[in-house]
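[job 4471] stage=fold_predict status=RUNNING
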Amino acid sequence: MYEEFYGFSERPFQLTPDPAFYFESVTHKKALSYLGYGLNQGEGFVVITGEVGAGKSTLVAHLKQKLDGERMTVGEVVTSALDGEEMIHVAARSFGLDIEGGDKAAALAAIELFLHEEARNGRRVLLIVDEAQNLSIGALEELRMLSNFQLGSHPLLQTLLLGQPEFKHLLAQSDELEQLRQRVIAAHHLEPMQPGEIEPYVTHRLHHVGWDGNPELDSALWVKLHKATGGIPRKVNQVMNRLLLMGALEEQSVLEADMLDAVLEEMEGDNSAEVEAAPAPRARPDRDLPAADAIAKARSEAAPVAAPAPAQQAMSPEQEKGLLDHQIDAIEQAFAARDKHMAALRREVEKLAASRGEGGGEVPADLDQRLSAIERRLDEQEQSLRHVLAMMIDYFESQATRAAA
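[job 4471] inference complete, writing structure tokens
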């Protein structure tokens, strides 16, 4: 791949979180300050929210490296849709506690005993819960109840909640979470990187893998890159991966702005920045639904009934297709174009051979034109194959993005 062509030690723009590539943007520096303050308090909840790909997981991985493993025990939960009882058992397993059966009371007792033992050994306990927007209201309430465990007046458990913007909205809007909201001692929403941070971010990651100036980076890249990605780190990584791949395939030593334009066109707008939805009226979400679904349901119930949309505003079948369908269609179309070009090449070769045979070995007068046409078709075939490769990479990157989100 491109890392071999440019002599990198590894891929600099991988999509999975890696604390070795941590870049301290303005918003990440603020987040670390809030985290440091919150952890020094040793109690309650610290909340970090941000868009998918904003760098929450990388931030936490960097934080864990800074923690003293001799004085802090860390449990981690990456949630699916959990109810209250499931949350207790998952939290217990995150601390290595093996609870037989599904007895909630036994799980709570085991967690409390574990917390007391850690406190007596001079160790604090931190529970990190990722994708908190997937938790039900009941599960969030169970986490709040876990924060009640104390040894004398000393709190035994602190919780770090990571979530997408809808979790930030849920905390602000839900009356059901008033008690949890009162226990949040620090919170920060990760904003996108600023325009002036794109170049330092990219070069920081490149230097980490041994970049020596090859490829050279056109100064016109940065404004376009920020506009295309909205300053979201993971989106920047996606675009830079594709740009470096194109550079390697075309054996380019300079990555120029027109190459970036071509990459963005191939990605078909997948990296357009998302617009954050406006806050909805306060509501009482369903306690048994995941938080993101609960607040969406509450919003729809609180919103006035909208008039039916005009027929011409209905979504077309193309718009209703999922991402996978689009990817498959694009790949099939590219292969169809490739087959078409190959068939045309075969016909041209057959015609040339027939002309040579009929003319007794004479060269046809229009041979140069025919050869030029074949060369153009070969170029088209190469472009088609490159497009197929790009679309397949885009599909697998989108799968990795979902897995890492």
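[job 4471] summary: Strands lie at 45-50, 72-78, 124-130, 150-151, 154-155, 158-163, 184-190, 216-217, 254-255.
[job 4471] exit 0
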